[in-house]
Amino acid sequence: MTALHGPDDDAPRGGWPAGDDPAAAPWWTRAVVYQIYPRSFRDSDGDGVGDLPGILRRLDHLADLGVDVVWLSPVYTSPQADNGYDISDYQDVDPLFGTLADVDALIAGLHERGMKLVMDLVVNHTSDEHPWFVNSRAGRASDRRDWYWWRPARPGMEPGTPGAEPTNWRSFFGGSAWAFDEASGEYYLHLFDTKQPDLNWENPDVRRAVHAMMRWWLDRGVDGFRMDVINLISKTIAPDGSLPDGEVHYGVLGDGSPYYTDGPRVHEYLAEMHREVFAPYLAQGREILTVGETPGVTVEHGRRYTDPARREVDMVFQFEHMGVDHGASKWDPVPMRLTDLKATFGRWQAGLAEAGWNSLYWDNHDQPRVVSRFGDDSPEHRVASAKALALLLHLHRGTPYVYQGEELGMTNAHFTRIEQYQDVESLGHYAEMVEHGVATPEQMLAALAAMGRDNARTPVQWDASEHAGFTSGTPWLEVNPNHGEVNAEAAWADEDSVLHFYRRLHALRHDVPVVALGDFRMLLPDHEQVYAFTRALDVPSGGGGERERDELLVLVNVGGTPQDVPAAVLDGWGGASVLLATHPGPDGADRPGVVGHLAPWEGLVLRRRPTLPPR
Ligand code: ISL
Hints:
Blueprint (H helix, E strand, L loop, with lengths): L32 E4 L15 H5 L2 H7 L3 E4 L3 E2 L11 E5 L6 H13 L3 E6 L9 H6 L13 E2 L26 E4 L4 E4 L14 H17 L3 E4 L19 E2 L5 E2 L10 H18 L5 E5 L5 H8 L8 E3 L20 H14 L7 E3 L8 H4 L8 H13 L4 E5 L20 H12 L5 H11 L2 H4 L30 H5 L5 H14 L1 H5 L1 E5 L6 E11 L6 E11 L5 E2 L2 H4 L6 E5 L15 E2 L4 E6 L7
Parallel strand pairs: 1-2, 1-15, 2-5, 5-9, 9-12, 12-13, 14-15
Antiparallel strand pairs: 3-4, 6-8, 7-8, 10-11, 16-17, 17-18, 18-22, 19-21, 20-22
Helix pairs in contact: 5-6, 10-15, 11-12
Bound molecules: 6-O-alpha-D-glucopyranosyl-D-fructose.
């Protein structure tokens, strides 16, 4: 027997809108954000790497799609050890991508079309080639020594010898999180690559320098920031100044994440940033978006980061749903169980219902493509499963993020050789796992094919020509061979494409307040294949104080076999209309009678509006 409702039935409801008028909710509750990973978006000069002029030539693709905000992954000056997430000058553009004048042109081009630009803010760490770090490593007495995390070797150990690192923390990209500096005999912390030393946020001078840089960009006209790993900036320090060891799960290195995730001062730092940077601009009426990337964040901290009363950030990217197919680690993928996905989404929807706000995403530049991951990228089901997953996500309560190519139903790369990979994380883990005998090369290749970040980074497929219209040169990462079929030109020409379906989803969010703001209620928490929920919002109707309850029922078949919808779910929805569907009804039918049965990967949204009595 399948339960109709989940345990979150009694969860508090409310939050935005604060009053009765949906129009009073912040603009970003109605917005769709589109992420551009510039290296892979479009190349204008034939060097095989995407660039800013390439983006400028594709702005109409974004406008036609109904995008409100573009989040641009880093274009700053960088040695490119982590494709720009290692920044050596925050206030200039890498020649690989263009010039500051190109950013100005991008801001102008987006603003002309009614869109905004959000920049990536990478301030947990800099590049080791940033002048701040060059100065810091110059010696123990240098002015900026304390701008980074320098520590002596473990007591009693010879500096620079195996195991003498100050803590046993493993870096995100494999290997120790500490690098030894021979000249000074000390180590610096790098949670990511050795070329990405962590900034010391305990130092107020560091915070002031970051704030000044952010104001400089806001003065230039950008509309906000996506804040890279912002919940890792505060580390737990013992009274003697040392950092604690983490638990060892495999090999000799440990998991330091409890000592830097949502650390002791992080909320203080974000509130300070809001006060020092954003508040004056907001007071002048500037529309700004702030979103924190927060791996490992809990619902409790997610609510604290995004509760408007606390003035930290507007929303965060949580990672729980990205873990539903992880086994012992991300490199040990297991099939996703739909009930796990419902449990995690349900918990976040309930947890941020009253205060705070969710961001919603499947894809970004760090994740495999959702149609290959949770959908089915075979020719038979690629289009339908991409639409079904899009509908499922975009009808939750929160601000949706679309990653370049997701709107085309782009798939994983399906690489088979290690030489095809470029990503520092993939190459680092391959080396570490194979070296320690944790996995064979064949196992690691299978893991990379399923989970590697390069799956998201293959060039955007604009047309069916050689290199998919991405570049006239040699692409820095192989183009997916399926671009003959999967490409933007073909998709715009086909009303039934994944692309047009995303366009309709975006229009729905703009036009129908219950899509953006309605309360969320999960149904059928135990069903293994049908994902079902309702949304509801009281909206003003007419000028006489009357209100109407606008309600949606969302049904999605997350699988390749037909499904019957349990009758109890449809109770009361007899007179409803179909607002949006992945499949045309029989005879173009628009009747809920047809929804008792879902075709493979079919999804639909029903709407009913029983009028409420005036208050
Ligand atoms: O990619 C991941 C999934 O395994 C994460 O470990 C990822 O590194 C983490 O989410 C942080 O990501 C961000 O910061 C990194 C950068 O490499 C990523 O591209 C960025 O999104 C360091 O700046």
